Structure formats: structure tokens, C-alpha cells
Amino acid sequence: MTEPARILVVGGGYVGMYTALRLQRQLRTELRAGAAEIVVVTPEPYMTYQPFLPEAAAGSISPRHVVVPLRRVLDRCRIVIGEVQSVDHAKRTATLATLATAEEGTGTLDLTYDELVIAPGSVSRTLPVPGLIDHGIGFKTVEEAIGLRNHVIEQMDIASSTRDPAIRDAALTFVFVGGGYAGVEALAELEDMARYTARYYHNVKPEDLRWVLVEASDRILPEVGEEMGRYAVRELRGRNIDVRLETRLESCEDRVAVLSDGTRLPTRTVVWTAGVKPAPVLAETDLPLNERGRLRCTAQLAVEGAPHAWAAGDAAAVPDLTSDEPGKECAPNAQHAVRQAKVLAENITASLRGQPLKEYAHAYAGSVASLGLHKGVAHVYGRKLKGYPAWFMHRAYHLSRVPTFNRKARVLAEWTLSGLFKREIVSLGSLEHPRAEFELAAAPPPDNGDKPSS
To answer: What is the pTM of this model?
Structure first.
């Protein structure tokens, strides 16, 4: 009996999920006959729709509606929860560690494949800033988004109850590093949420909160264009948000953010959103990488010089056929990733069936960004929008792009309800340490050194 053709998909993000979803539809006959098998290896059993993370942090969307369960969507694929640690494509073998291998203590296991889709996405790009590893907070996962929401409300609780002015000022100072989508949208949504929350504190006013955005370049949100970027700066500063352009974070040791302009900000909150870099697993493969650590790919989304290896999204350096600039590559963003996944799945299917391959070519449509409730900027198909129209377009666009009708309906229902009722201002920080109370109750009483009397 011949072995089925195994397609290994590394990663369950945009590219991984959409590629596997389309493959299981196109290869329905082969999968049913046992002639093909799709294996998806991913660290998490869900795909995170990252554009909704700021709204999840602000409480506009429930965290469980920001993620898509892979086992439900990819019901004809084999889902393996684990991480690929290295790939030997010459031998068509991937080495991976799963939850089970950690429990068994047997080490890693090898998985052979016929076709490889490598789409592990990206990780936060950090710099050797003193104190960052101890005090920095990321904003790339749903856990980080909800943790940051809980943290912000917890700092307001600390400020409300402390009698130390220095602790109060530090608790109410929030520093965000990075003026891209993640940093600006996270800051804008959380500032909106915190300003609303302040009305329920008897001694914390919105003007007591200090929000600082630190950006190393001379503008924010470069994707929406220079004019809309300047408008975004004016909008944020009009809300008393301190936007520092051409400024870097030098240190955040001892809970003091030191900026390159000499400013020292005592703070208990430093959110790092200063870019991303390719996943480390790419360096553990025998596949060709460019100077930025991304896989060298052709316009057909095949890895250069590596037959039967494919890539797209953040991990892939794909030539932009729509650009007049020589050597221009597609931007590593969700807009390209979703469209590339479609072509990638079609090309893998065509390769298995001996059919000609397609080239990926998509002109960049534009960008939309939220600046909080009812506020936003957009530059789409040459049209520039700001304020409410841009915010509405931001929501409409991402609602159309979030996977599955189930998620679309739930998100739309939550937006409708949030328009009818007041914001939720509850912090569930204890969720991050669910056993803390039980451990305290189960701990033996302290030994005070008293001896029983004779």
C-alpha cells in the first residue's frame, strides 16, 4: 500500500490556517481516498486575528472571539500542538517537540513529509535595552492583550489606594514604544478605556493619567501615508497623549523609563511594540534566507532552490510583481498573507496534480487604523479618510476578513451590545495566577517559634 502524500504545514497563523483550509477543500477527493494527508504543527490550538487585539484589550470584544479554533475549522487536517525546532529539507524531515514529548521525557520526534509549507509567522523584535526583559510587556498575543488590560486597571486601583505620590504618579504613567499599528492602536484603545474607567474612581481623573508614545522615526503609522500620519499625531496629542517622535527608549531599569531626549519617566508600564522579526525556527533549516532572515521565495511562493518547499507571510521574502521598483518585496502584513495563502494552496494542489503554477501578484489596497472608539485614519485605494468614517471602515474591513461566519456574527453582536450598554471595567488579573488563592489556603501555618507548654 502506497503512503499518502504528507503536506506538513508549520504554523497555525494567517498563512498556516488559510493554506490548510483551502487545501482540505481542494484535496477533498485525495483526503477521502487516503492519498493525501495534511498535518498542521502549531504551538497554539487556535489562530489569533491580531487586528482585533486592541479592541479585546479595551473590552470591546471578548478574547475568545479574537481567536479561531483550528480543530473546528480544519476538521480534515491532523492538528499537532507543538513546535518545529528544525527542518532538514534535504531529508524531508522536521524535528518537533509536542506537549506529549515534554511529559514523556523522550525528547524530540522526527516527522517526514512530501510537501513543506513553512509559515511560523514572526516574533517581537527586541533590542538590548536595560530593564526591558524585566519590565517590558509585549502586545502580539491574546494573552498579552488581556494581561495588559488587567494591568492598566490594576495600576488605577493602586493609584486610587496609595498614599505615596511617587507610587501614584508611576502607576498612572503608561509608556508605549513603537508607532506602528500595534503600538498606536493599543495605546489609543486603552487610553479610551482608561479615561472611561476613571469616572468610577473617586480620586482618579482622566487628566491624572499620562500616556506616552515613543517612536524612533519622524512619524507614526507609515502605512497610512504621511498626511494621515500627521493627522493621527494631532488627534492623539489633542487627547493629551504625549507623542515623542525621533526618540528612543534608552533604559527602563528600576521602573524608570529613560528616553533618548533625556526625559526620565517613573512608570510601572512599558509596552514594547517596536516591530517584529522572523521566527527563530527559520535559522534552524537548510533553506535559503535573505539578509533579514526571511526565506527567499519565487513569485510562485516556492522557496528558491528547494523543490517541494513553500512559504508565505511574515516568513517569506516574496517579490512584488506589481511594483516598478526592482527587487521590491511584498510587505509582511496580514493583507498579503491571506491572499498569498490562497495562491499557495492552489500551487501545492497544482504541483501534486502536475499542473502549471500561478504567480502571486496583488497591488496593495491601502491601510486602515483605529484611534479609539469612533476615531480612526484610513488610506484606501487613494482615498484618505479620518475620524468616524475611517473608524467605521476599519471595523467593516476587519469584520469581513475575520475567519468563519461564526466569528463574524459573534463580533458583530458584541459591537452592537457595546453600543447599547456601558463598557466593562472589570480587571480579572487573578486569571493569570489561578492557583494562587488555593496555594495560600493549602499552605501550612507559619511557624512562629512558640513551643507547647508542658
So the answer is: 0.88
Half-sphere exposure of 76 (CA within 13 A, CB side): 19
User: C-alpha grid cell for residue 399?
Assistant: 469584520
- Residues, the chain, total? 454
Please enumerate in sequence order all residues whose Cβ is within 8 A of that of 140, keeping only pairs 6 or more positions apart, or say none. 50, 53, 123, 124, 182, 276
- 256 has which bridge partners? 266
Amino acid at 9: V
- Domain with 173 in it: what CATH number? 3.50.50.60
Q: Round to whole Å and give the CA distance between 148 and 213.
A: 16
By the 8 A CB rule, do 313 and 332 touch? Answer: yes
Q: Which of 227, 257, 274 is the last residue of a domain?
A: 274
β-partners of residue 369 are 377
Contact 364, 385 (CB under 8 A): no
Task: Give the torsion sign (CA, 441, 268, 143, 149).
Answer: positive
Q: Within this chain, do residues 89 and 176 fall inside the same structural domain, yes or no?
A: no
Q: Which of 316, 330, 319 is nearest to 287 (CA)?
A: 316
Dihedral angle at the C-alpha atoms of 80, 86, 88, 89, nearest 10 degrees?
A: 60
| Amino acid at site 182 | A
- What are the pLDDT digits (tens) for 53-108? 999 998 888 888 999 999 999 999 999 999 999 999 999 999 999 988 878 877 89
Q: Which residue has the cell 475549522?
A: 73
What's the distance, Cα to Cα, between the start and end of the chain in Å?
A: 82
Under DSSP, the state recorded for 329 is B
pLDDT one-digit tens code per residue, 408-438:
999 999 999 888 877 777 767 666 677 777 8
What is the chain's alpha carbon radius of gyration, rounded to the nearest angstrom? 24
**DSSP secondary structure of 295-319:** EEB-TTSBBTT-TTEEE-GGGEE-B
Q: Of 248, 274, 300, which residue sits at a domain end?
A: 274
Rounded distance, CA 383 to CA 192, Å? 27
